[in-house]
Amino acid sequence: YYNTDINDICRGIRRAARRDEVFVLFSHDICANPNKVSMRTEWLEKILATAQECGVAVKGFRELGPVEPQRPTGPMLVSLTFDDNIRDHLLVAAPELEKRGWKGVFAIVTDWIGKKENHLSWDEVRELVRRGHEIAVHTRSHRGLGRLADKGQTELVREEIAVARDIITRETGVRPRLLCLPGSNYSAMVGTIARE
Question: How many Å apart are CA 72 and CA 87, to the nearest integer?
Answer without folding.
Answer: 34
